[in-house]
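Hi P.,

Sorry for the delay on this. The queue was packed all week, but I finally got your sequence through. Input first:
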Amino acid sequence: MVSRRVTSAIGVVLVGMLIVLVLVATGFVAVPAPAEDKYERTSVTIYDENETQLGHVDARIADTQWKRYTGLSNTTQLPKNEGMLFTYDAPGDHTYVMRGMDFGIDIVYIGADGRITKIHHAPEPPEDADGNEYQYPGHGQYVLEVNHNWTTRHGIEAGDRVVIEGQH
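Then the structure:
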């Protein structure tokens, strides 16, 4: 009798776990982003061809697969002059999406040489969209996300030089 209750309880727990797993996998239940304090930070400064400083941000570093996948998803806002820096071991082609985003961002692709290769101005997705269909491809070893039109306000464009504290 006790054995039957234990088996039933285990079955209920397993079914419950399976349901939660399916809900997370299908996007019906959001997985919380890593807490902001779980990110290391770095300083990112951008210069033009005359070495004039155009802009500077304090950036959280997304250096693991989980942090890169989560990105700024489920973040309510990005404070002024802050960003998120996605790092990769080598340059490559990447596509960023606006999954779970509540605000627009600029997506800045940076090559291994520290030069900006591409800038996308990604507006906030419509309220009824999941954001996955809004895709922004580029090539680089680093990707910097900052507030929407931050690069425009600072006169930043492809070819400008990016200095990442401790990198270049």
